[in-house]
Each structure stands twice: as structure tokens, then as C-alpha cells.
Amino acid sequence: MKITSDWAGISLMLLILSPGISLAQQTPENAVTVISTPEANIGRTEEEIAKIKAIRASAEKAKEQGQAYLKAGKYQEAVVAFQESLALVHTSSRPYLGLIEAYRELKQFDKAIETYRKLLYPWEGKNFASHENNPYVLLPFAQLLNQRNKWAEAVSVYNHALNFLDEKSERRALSTYNLPVWQAFSPTMPEKRRFEAAVRVAQALVHCRRGEEEQALSELQRALELQPRDAYAHYYIARLLKHKVGSDAMLRHFALAERYGDAAVRQAVSEAIALLHYMYQEQYPEVKRTARLDP
User: Domain for residue 258, yes or no?
Assistant: First the structure.
């Protein structure tokens, strides 16, 4: 495992090294014609404006139908509804997200990937707020690319997402010492299980930023099922167990993070324990003595 404090630099380096893969280079085919925004109504007649409003209303209704179908588990019907919405107006990202979810449930993964690309990447006529800097969208996309053996693009998307998991956000989410380290992946050497575990750790941090701690713990536990010696997963589980300060579970995960990590991880564990001692005025045992079980 390679760990470095300059993870942003690694992300940029791997984006550059990824052959032919760039967020700015992807251009989905058959883009839907843009319906102009309200700011562009100057010079239009009232009749033209009324027609545009009617089209938008129909698109919104189709989108709501798609959401209802998703909740009901009627995924094929949801696909039709979201496609109808996008055929009318593609200035909203929500029908794309709904369409992706429906395709995934139908196991039509290649169609889900193409829809992700339309949502994330620039293309001629695109006219809505992009999610290209949103790790909540990028990380599942990277995971799907990995599953479909699109390795170079998966690494590129993963590294791009890491740029938006900044230290400040993570501190707000977890309220303890931050470990700004990330695993590096070669775009030419697939490591599917280790990659999936790394993405799940990153997804856990996104959940933490959204206050979804149970989901975060679930992702970290799944990461450990894939890679029992993942120092990152052990470290962040220990941090999330703040409601069990000083517990055997917290100290065990800190110990395993120290055992399987390098010097940077060991330093992070030491500082996290010191911070907890300062915050709670309790004397913690030496971390290296607390590990009772091996994965």
C-alpha cells in the first residue's frame, strides 16, 4: 500500500497518466436539443414563452412519474418516463440520476455508464449544472467502471473525485484528527478488489459529510470484507466510533490501522489518540497493546 500526504498531487499525476481519459474529453452522442432558460426569453413572444413553459411542465411531470416508478420498483417504466422527460428538456440533472438508478436496477450497466457520461462530461449544447465535481456521483461511477473492466477511466474518475474530499470537509464530518492520505492506482494495472475497497472508504467519507454515519460504517465494513488489512478502513472506523470513546472496538481498529499502515498512518493514529486524550481527559493504553484479534 502506498500512502502519501500529497494525495492531491497523486490524483493530478494519475489523471495526466491515464491514456486518453479526461473528464473534458468525453462527449456523449445524440445529445438532446437544449430548451432555453428563462433568462433567454427576451425577444420572445408570449405565445413562444407559453409553449416553453408547457414543455417544461410536461418534462417535470414525466420526471415525477419516473421517481414514482422507481419507488414502486417498476424500473422499465421508470426508464421510459425519464427518457420522456429528457427528450423534452435536458436542463435538469435529476432525470439523468433517476435513469442511472433504473438502469442499474435492470442490470443494464453499459447504458448506466453512458448516462453517467452525459451527466458528468461536457458536450455541445449541455446547459445544466454539472456533477463533475460531486464525489457523491463520481465515486459510484468509478465503482461501476471498475466492475465493467473500464479500468483506466475508473482510476481517472476516482482520482478526480478525491480532489473534492478536502481536509476541512472531513474534519467537519468526523471532528477528529484528519488523515489526508489516499491509495494510488496505476491506470494500466487493474487491482479490482483493492480499488473497490478504496472507493468504499472514500464513499464513507462522503456519507460522513452528509451526516450519514450508519451508511459510512457500512461502506467501511464492506471495504474490510474486501481488504481485511486496509489501514484506511480501520482508521476511519475507529474515528467514527466516537460515541464509544476508549472502547475495545475503537482501540482495536486504531491498533490494526497502525499495524497495517505505514509511518503516515501510525503518526495519524498517535495524534488521534492524543487528541482524544486531550478532549476527554482520559489515559488511553498504548495502541499497539490493544489489538486482540487479527482479521
Answer: no
- Inside any domain, residue 107: yes
For residues 178 and 239, the answer to whether their CB atoms sit within 8 Å is no
Please tell me the distance from the alpha carbon of residue 100 to that of residue 110, in angstroms, as a whole number: 10
Into how many domains does the chain fold? 1
What percent of the chain shows pLDDT beyond 90? 37
Cα angle, residue 19 at apex, residues 167 and 5 outer, rounded to 5°: 20
Q: Which domain holds residue 111?
A: 24-38+45-131
Residue 63 lies in a domain: yes
Residues 131, 140: Cα–Cα separation, whole Å: 12
Which residues, at least 6 apart from 293, have a Cβ–Cβ distance to it below 8 Å?
252
Residue among 285, 211, 226 at smallest CA distance from 254: 285
Per-residue confidence (pLDDT) for residue 129, from 0 to 100: 61
Dump pLDDT digits (tens) for 18-38: 333 344 433 334 333 444 455
What span, in angstroms and rounded, lies between the C-alpha atoms of 253 and 74?
A: 42
Q: Is residue 4 part of a domain?
A: no
The answer to whether 98 and 82 have CB atoms below 8 angstroms apart is yes
Separation between Cα atoms, residue 212 and residue 280, nearest integer Å? 24
| Least confident segment among 18-27, 179-188, 224-233 | 18-27
Mean pLDDT of 84-95: 86
Model pTM?
A: 0.72
Pick the more confident residue, 96 or 125: 96
Nearest to 79 by CA among 119, 53, 106: 106
> Helical H runs in the chain?
7-17, 46-72, 75-88, 94-105, 109-120, 135-147, 151-162, 167-174, 192-209, 213-226, 231-240, 248-260, 263-280
Task: Output the domain CATH number for residue 68.
Answer: 1.25.40.10
